[in-house]
Amino acid sequence: AQRVTQPEKLLSVFKGAPVELKCNYSYSGSPELFWYVQYSRQRLQLLLRHISRESIKGFTADLNKGETSFHLKKPFAQEEDSAMYYCALYSGNTGKLIFGQGTTLQVKP
Amino acid sequence: NAGVMQNPRHLVRRRGQEARLRCSPMKGHSHVYWYRQLPEEGLKFMVYLQKENIIDESGMPKERFSAEFPKEGPSILRIQQVVRGDSAAYFCASSREQGRNTEAFFGQGTRLTVV
Question: What chain B residue is nearest to A84 in terms of C-alpha separation?
Fold first, then answer.
């Protein structure tokens, strides 16, 4: 079964602390994974995709096929990072994006 | 390019009424996806459409829900005889094509409240 799991509903950290938002996936084949972010009262937007190996707003994510994970990390959290983060898997069989349950990141001053 | 436009932003319906949610994809995009976000839950896939075709409706409830994406005009998600459990945020996304490396762009969503 194709599935994305984000085990934490809420992650609360202080400004300047490291952040890791967990994402695990289940997919037979070569996965393509994304992180989307939804700031308060705004639409979902793409944060980064594993295939491009980029760093956006200081966030990085590494695909670990052995652990079937794609955790999102940032060394020093900022208050403006507070948002809802969704991990997503592209299903080549069906052409659709499968999302995890989302994790709310709260960065406290 | 105005991005993916959804309207209305907020919709209130009484139980038993019909709800029509509209999604205009980005210019040049022929693929549309609808997702539902229930309170305290993530985004659940509902349906994937291309112009005049339903490609995958595996996430759509079998009854009362339907979707279309006509040759001209926006994609419509229609919910007949709404019930309280239909209250949710409904998001539409569009992409230029299907395939790896294709980015999906989201609308701001329609928040449906059934009273």
Answer: B42
